């Protein structure tokens, strides 16, 4: 993986189940995927994360076989998928809408593909029962989709995939139809289920929190390319590019210049860097400390503050009015904090956690 000087991809440390090698895809003159490479190891959950239009769903559809890649290769267990039709690829797809048949019971929805493949009735019944038990839906066999909650419908969609015993599980924004509280619960449940089954999985989302919860690794995409692929903590704490730093979580950026291998920070501290010339410095809001006015170079005034559960988020206009800095602090019942308009001083808690990027 490259550092802050350029884009990065990451290769899994174990023998990959899924290997995406230099995949490209165009629609007319528009390039949707541009040289995407990614290895996914046995039992690993990798999330494709990025804004709408970045290519994440297109890449998932190429893996599934719904669309053909124009260049590069996709292999599963070493077998090139280029000439393998959709219905013969060892993948299972859970769609956003779940795509359940409203006129079929839960059991018949789950067993539909087995019937289409001519699996003997007794074997199909055994596999359907096992899949429903896995997703905790035993006893729901005779219900119809309209009689289920959103979370139960999602579990039916997952069970329908599990009966096919896929080598790779593909999930295309499966939480979109759920309310916020249920989304959080289902994220944890689904991750635990996938890990207990040891399924190699590709998860697609535009939601950062979802990606941080679900993933062993996150591949951040931008304009058809993978900017960085790494574990969630590394993506958050050591983003490889300014784009990743800006897209994941909340960030503060300042322009600066490198002098003798170090970059001066706004509070008078400095951080080492291998870059030269003009740079941008990034610090996360939780790496800043807000305090009453004190002697020091970094002074400001609270422009806006809001409580976010146990935290308080401050927007501080620094002296000169040339930058708005975001700071996050713990909210304490006995501490009224800093009201709007209050003069404050700022300090970077750990300069080593600041990232430096080319200007």
Automatic annotation (TrEMBL):
Keyword match Transport: yes
GO biological process, one term: quaternary ammonium group transport
A molecular function (GO) term: transmembrane transporter activity
Transmembrane segments: none
ABC transporter domain span: 18-248
PROSITE patterns from the UniProt entry: ABC_TRANSPORTER_1, ABC_TRANSPORTER_2
SMART domains from the UniProt entry: AAA
InterPro entries: AAA+_ATPase, ABC_SmlMolc_Importer, ABC_transporter-like_ATP-bd, ABC_transporter-like_CS, Mo/tungstate-bd_C_term_dom, P-loop_NTPase, Transp-assoc_OB_typ2
Name of the protein in its database record: ABC transporter ATP-binding protein
């Amino acid at each position: 993986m490259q550092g802050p000087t350029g884009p990065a991809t990451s290769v899994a440390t174990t023998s990959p189940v899924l290997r995406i090698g230099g995949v490209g895809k165009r629609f007319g003159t528009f390039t949707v995927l541009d040289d995407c490479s990614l290895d996914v190891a046995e039992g690993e959950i990798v999330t494709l994360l990025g804004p709408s239009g970045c290519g994440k769903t297109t890449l998932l559809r190429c893996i599934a076989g719904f669309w053909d890649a124009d260049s590069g290769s996709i292999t599963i267990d070493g077998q090139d998928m280029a000439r393998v039709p959709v219905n013969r690829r060892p993948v299972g797809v859970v769609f956003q809408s779940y795509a359940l048949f409203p006129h079929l019971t839960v059991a018949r929805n789950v067993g539909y593909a087995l019937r289409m493949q001519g699996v003997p009735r007794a074997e199909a019944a055994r596999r359907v029962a096992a899949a429903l038990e896995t997703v905790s839906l035993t006893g729901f066999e005779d219900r119809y989709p309209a009689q289920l909650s959103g979370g139960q419908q999602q579990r039916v969609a997952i069970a329908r995939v599990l009966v096919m015993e896929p080598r790779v599980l593909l999930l295309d924004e499966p939480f979109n139809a759920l309310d916020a509280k249920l989304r959080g619960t289902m994220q944890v449940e689904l991750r635990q289920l996938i890990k207990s089954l040891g399924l190699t999985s590709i998860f697609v989302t535009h939601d950062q929190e979802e990606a941080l919860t679900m993933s062993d690794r996150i591949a951040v995409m931008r304009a058809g390319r993978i900017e960085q692929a790494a574990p969630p903590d590394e993506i958050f704490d050591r983003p490889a590019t300014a784009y990743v730093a800006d897209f994941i979580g909340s960030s503060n950026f300042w322009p600066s210049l490198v002098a003798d291998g170090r970059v001066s920070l706004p509070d008078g501290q400095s951080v080492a860097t291998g870059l030269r010339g003009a740079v941008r410095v990034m610090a996360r809001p939780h790496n800043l400390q807000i305090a009453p006015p004190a002697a020091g170079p970094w002074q400001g005034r609270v422009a806006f503050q809001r409580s976010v559960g146990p935290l308080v988020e401050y927007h501080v206009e620094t002296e000169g009015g040339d930058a708005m800095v975001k700071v996050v602090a713990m909210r304490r019942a006995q501490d009224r904090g800093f009201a709007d308009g209050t003069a404050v001083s700022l300090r970077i808690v750990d300069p080593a956690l600041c990232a430096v990027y080319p200007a």
